[in-house]
Amino acid sequence: VQLQASGGGLVQPGGYLRLSCAASRSIFSGEVMGWYRQAPGKQRELVASITSGHITDYSDSVKGRFTISGDNAKKRVYLQMNSLKPEDTAVYYCNFRSGSRWYWGQGTLVTVSS
After folding, report:
1. Residue range 6-12: average pLDDT?
2. Cα–Cα distances in Å, from 106 out to 30, 37, 46, 73, 109?
3. What burial letters (b/e) apply to 81-97, b meaning 16+ CB within 10 Å?
C-alpha cells in the first residue's frame, strides 16, 4: 500500500488545517488507517485512527479538537485539526495497518506558531 499525505503548513495558534492521505487502494474489513505524529526529540505517537467500519479513536491530547474521517470510494483519509496549539507542531504521518503489516506515508510538517 502506498500513501501520500498532504495539507501541512504553518498556522497560528487557534487556527486550523486539514490533512489528507491518499491510499493506493481502499481499506478492507479489519484494516485501520490513521495519523501519527512525531515532534522533534520525541517518539512517534498515535493521533487518531479509523477502522473500515468508521470506528474512530483519538489520543487524549487531541480529543475534541481533531476529527478523522474516511472516504473509501476516494481511498482517502482526512484529519481536520481545529484549535491548533504550538504543541501540535510535528511531522504528521499517514498510516495503514493490515494485520501485522504497517505502511507509512512520507510525512507532512505542521507548524503552529505566531
Report:
1. 97
2. 24, 12, 16, 22, 10
3. beebeeebbbbbbbbbb
Whole-angstrom Cα distance, residue 95 to residue 4? Answer: 10
**Nine-digit cell at 73?**
470510494
Q: Give residue 107's identity as a one-letter amino acid code.
A: G
Residue 4 in grid coordinates: 501520500
Helices of type H across 10-84: none
Q: What is the pLDDT of residues 24-47, one digit of tens each?
A: 999 999 999 999 999 999 999 999
Which residue from 30, 36, 68 is spatially nearest to 50, judged by alpha carbons?
Answer: 68
